[in-house]
Design goal:
It is a single chain. The chain has helices at about 5-20, 40-50, 60-75, 115-130, 150-165, 175-180; strands at about 30-35, 55, 60, 85, 105-110, 130-140, 185-190, 195-205. By secondary structure, it is an alpha/beta fold. Strand 5 (about 105-110), helix 4 (about 115-130) and strand 6 (about 130-140) form a beta-alpha-beta unit. It is built from six helices and eight strands, in the order H-E-H-E-E-H-E-E-H-E-H-H-E-E. The termini are far apart. It is about 40% helix and about 25% strand. It has a single domain (about 5-205), classed as 3-Layer(aba) Sandwich (Rossmann fold). Bound molecules: S-adenosylmethionine. S-adenosylmethionine (SAM) binds near residues 35, 36, 37, 39 and 64.
Amino acid sequence: MLLSPRAERNWEDLCSVLEEVLEDQSPRQLFALELGSGTGQHVIRFAQKMPFVTWQPSDIKEESRESIMEYIAATHVKNVLQPVHLDASAGWEEWAALSRNSCDIIIAINLLQYSSFKTAQGVFNGSGQLLEQNGLLITYAVYAINGTITPSCNEHLDAELRQMNPEWGLPDVDVLRQLAYGNGLRMERMIEMEEYYKCLIFRKL
Ligand SMILES: C[S@@+](CC[C@H](N)C(=O)[O-])C[C@H]1O[C@@H](n2cnc3c(N)ncnc32)[C@H](O)[C@@H]1O
């Protein structure tokens, strides 16, 4: 089982955001797709806290999918489906046979800064197709805003990411807002989180 110390630190705050934005939705049974699930720590905690949501974890990496399976087995959670291979940079038709308008929530935690712009394009295009009307896309990351990165620790983070992979780096909120617009979504809220992280909440119109 993989363990991310950062996921151990931030899952509770992320849960609070999810519970708040979904407040008016429960007790309706919802379906959520997580992109780039990583270790599986988030999806397990979300499922335990929000039993009215069925969670579909996914990741491009086999190692991550194996870890998620191990967490599911160890915790016996009933509302997490087995993880699927999903490359968010691919066309939505290749997203694990999910059908149009089938998701109430799509969430991507720390995916956009660790992947190429093609992945961001895929995330918004896929969300535009897979979310049902009023469905939510939630992204969690450290962001640039209108081309500017502040404070200097975030500039260092951006430089570090680009050194690891020239295609990575802090995504720009305004670029994401435009991607959303082009795919039938609107940015509704920007929620400040710890250590300059933010949650962006997009709604499908
Ligand atoms: C920094 S990790 C974040 C993992 C987890 N969401 C978390 O916050 O602990 C980024 C994850 O995104 C996955 N990933 C990268 N590119 C991807 C893509 N194009 N499609 C789907 N997953 C991707 C990686 O395999 C990795 O598990």
